[in-house]
Amino acid sequence: MTISQQRNSGAITVSGLRKSYGDKVVLDGVDLQVAQGTTFALLGPNGAGKTTMVQILSTLIGGDGGEARVGGHDVAREPDAVRDLIGVTGQFSAVDNLLTGQENLRLMADLRHLDRATGRRRIAGLLERFDLVEAAGKPVTTYSGGMRRRLDLAMTLVGDPRIIFLDEPTAGLDPRSRRTMWQIIRNLVAGGVTIFLTTQYLEEADQLADRVALLDHGRLIAQGTPAELKKLIPGGHISLQFTDAAELDAAAAALAATGRDDDALTLQVPSDGGVRSLRALLDQLDRAAVNVAGLTVHTPDLDDVFLALTGQPRELVSALDEKAALR
Amino acid sequence: MSSLSYAMRDSSTMLRRNLLHARRYPALTMVVLALPIVFLLLFVFVFGGTLGAGIGGVSGGRAEYANYVTPGILMLAVTGAAQGTAISVAMDMAEGIIARFRTMAIFRPSVLTGHVLGSLIQTMAGLVVVVGVALLVGFRPTADVLEWIAAAGVLAMVTFAIVWLSVACGLVTKSVEAASNLPMPLMLLPFLGSGFVPTDSMPKAMQVVAEYQPFTPIMETLRGLLLGTAIGNNAIISVAWCTGLALVGFLWSRKLYSRDPIR
């Protein structure tokens, strides 16, 4: 297969992929394509089959049916050709806990068959880039969760892989470490790497991915760009709480509300939850001289997406398929 | 590089990993080493006087028994090492890094060969210590340099075979506890053979077991090399047993390791 053909067929091509453990169907005929140099996010709740998907694509386990090609190679028939191209960082840390950070990286350099000088240079570069220089000589058992995850990814990058699988790369990280990880991932994509990412967070998919697929009970229930997906879900809103019915009436007259609950004395106003729109809303309330007792911002999350999609999956999936065909 | 040199390079990388583990966490090695030494002291200083008289040498007694029991103690040390190997393999398989190795284009059995070679080196070093203690408590071998080398070769051969078996034990079990119990019966073999008393002092049925189990010919070969007793065809039988056990252990381990890891 020539390089241009590989490019045409995408960095990752999956068709009709199935996997069961005993009676439990984990992947139920999944089709997807990831173009080279793009970021693809597989979004789904716990137990949707995300990790199994990564395990099959990264040659860790075999599928039961269907076909999966990574970098143009069939994962079942040419696993070593696939392994040469990929790097994997799982949600469970894949570092050697009995070694130091430096020794872990050195282990990877040796297993990637780098010569000594290249290995040394790359390890020094990665330690620097991932802010692990100081911790390099310490055993991994002393690392924090964020450091461990960074080392994990650094180990993946020692071999300079062209396709990287990240299985929930920010699960369990604090917000700061999460942001650091996002920046690292963006830099990788800027370097031309193809990223296959799984996540439970809509925000993460939105931030990072060119295309997103929603996996639920082993089936893809929607696929598209983050913008396309967000159109499918109910927007965010602000919920206003009032102390009496008169205030509620006054606010309802002043605002374009979409929901109203006279018993709870609440009013729902559509909003993106941003500071600017929040200020505009408060200004409006001030002008109308309405007293607000409380305010909560509700942004759409994965729950909303799944609620929206699993209730009426067929139409939505086909609507998206049409869009995908037009692209 | 050819695939053979990749295999060598990956195996030596993994060996270095295992030796680093052993150096950093020596507790397991120490525990494994303590058992044969305790048994050596026990059998020489507590039971030695009586057992030595029973085996009837020229001089008899404790000194005679120290000579007699040392090959059995060495085999006990080998089986102790087997237990250590099974434990460390089982612990290793629970680590996330093994999944990473499986997604890398490396010589696949290198994870296992790293364990085998690492255990082999550790066990041989441990055996040197055990021989040292044996010399201190009255072991008086008659071997020349060549016979010492041959004895070391026999010990390396049997360790290699037993360690492959214990790698399989470490892979087949789901927990570290189970892995530590599985090679346990091996520890009985020196006792159920010619390790501690001559087989002809046992009841008839027991004698059959003792004479046809793998450790007896190996212990007799060691005894012959170190103390100048008759070896006969024990050397050949030992080589056959070790080759067979190593092959079974290797093929079984390879099969277990190439299964899909269970989630």
Please give a structural write-up.
Chain A has helices at residues 3-9, 50-57, 79-85, 101-111, 116-129, 145-157, 175-190, 202-208, 226-231, 245-254, 275-287, 302-311, 313-326, and strands spanning 12-21, 24-34, 39-43, 65-70, 73-74, 86-89, 163-167, 194-199, 211-216, 219-224, 237-241, 259-261, 266-270, 294-298. Chain A is of the alpha/beta class. In chain A, the strands form three sheets. Chain A has a six-stranded mixed β-sheet with strand order 6-7-8-3-9-10, with helices on both faces. The longest helix of chain A has 16 residues, at 175-190. Chain A is globular, with a radius of gyration of 24 Å. The relative contact order of chain A is 0.12. Mean pLDDT of chain A is 85; it is low at 1-8 and 312-327. With 263 residues, chain B is mostly helical. Chain B has one domain (3-258). Chain B is built from twelve helices and no strands. The two termini of chain B are 35 Å apart. The interface between A and B is medium-sized, with 32 and 25 residues.
Q: Report how far the terminal alpha carbons of chain A are from each other.
A: 26 Å
Question: Spans of chain B with pLDDT under 50 lasting ≥5 residues?
Answer: none
Order of helices and strands of chain A: HEEEHEEHEHHHEHEHEEHEHEEHEHH
Q: Biggest chain pair contact, residues each?
A: A-B, 32 and 25 residues
Name the structural class of chain B: mainly alpha
The helix tally of chain B amounts to 12
**What amount of the residues of chain A lies in strands?**
15-25%
CATH topology of the largest domain in chain A: Rossmann fold
> Stretches of chain A where pLDDT falls below 50 for ≥5 residues?
1-8, 312-327
What is the highest CATH level, the class of the largest domain in chain A?
Answer: Alpha Beta
Strand content of chain B: under 5%
Distance between the termini of chain B: 35 Å
Radius of gyration computed on alpha carbons of chain B: 19 Å
